[in-house]
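To make the argument concrete, we let one protein speak, a sequence paired with a row of structure tokens, as a model reads it:
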Amino acid sequence: MKKIKTTPLAPQEFEVEQISENEANIIAYPFEVGFAVSLAHPLRRFLLSSSVGYAPVAIKIEGAKHEFDSVRGMLEDISDFILNLKEIRFRLLDGATEAEIEYNFAGPCEIKGSDLSSDSVEIVTPDAHLATLNEEATLNFTLKIAQGIGYVPSEEIIDEISDEYIALDAYFTPVKSATYKIENVLVEDNPNFEKVILNIKTDGQISPVDAFRNSLEVMYAQLAVFNSEINVKAPVTIERVEESPELKKLAQPIDTLGLSARSFNCLDRSNIKYIGEIVLMSPNDLKNVKNLGKKSYDEIVEKLSEYGFDVGSELPEEVVNALKKKIEAK
């Protein structure tokens, strides 16, 4: 007789298979039949629609008034120049979300993506061709670059820029493709459980693992509204202290705090997974987390305070002991 269950099996195995710098497989198992695709499909959608990237949103070209104009001595007309520009992928530095950068070139020369690199922007497609200038040509232009998600047409940007700029269609999405396949996996003597293999390819603005992590954060944020309204209960455990509302909050994952990607990544890379781990730390311990700057420290302290705790808070002994058991088991 088929074994009767009261809860579905929760997957325990997670692997990252790094294929190249910009491609990776995210693997998880075992899932109950039908559960793998139920999770993989929305994750794929979030990867393609909600991953944060950078794109040029407007350009001002000296001597050109519109995209059908031309620049003396440049082989490409402005429309071809803009098409080439869209193939160049940018990454703003130092946490910037927008930048305005001026460029000046004199021919004869071939301008490539690498020539647009500066102190404020990194080019992840350095070999991409932009323009060819002859010995009589000068090309001076100013580029506006912004951070965003998805695709934003130029019609929605034009009202936000001054008249001397040409609005550009902005392709922010750094994920080039996200596909998944489902395979059967054996659990004890049952071959009908499932493994999901999610393949992610990016354009270099972001790593596949970071893109996956960001998609999870977006998914959690979307689902959080149901948790707050319906008051979903945490799993019941044997120990009485697990019923404590205080411990339930401390045992929440750190993404519950709604931290910025920079702050979250610093904690995650240091294997800090639960809110309670931060609370148990002293202020100096938190400040000494690798690559955690003052801005990130202040953000974590502020978010923790909003959640009802302080760094280094005094907690009841039974709560501390139960929390430490959970941390040790991660």
Q: What stands out?
A: The chain has nine helices and 14 strands.
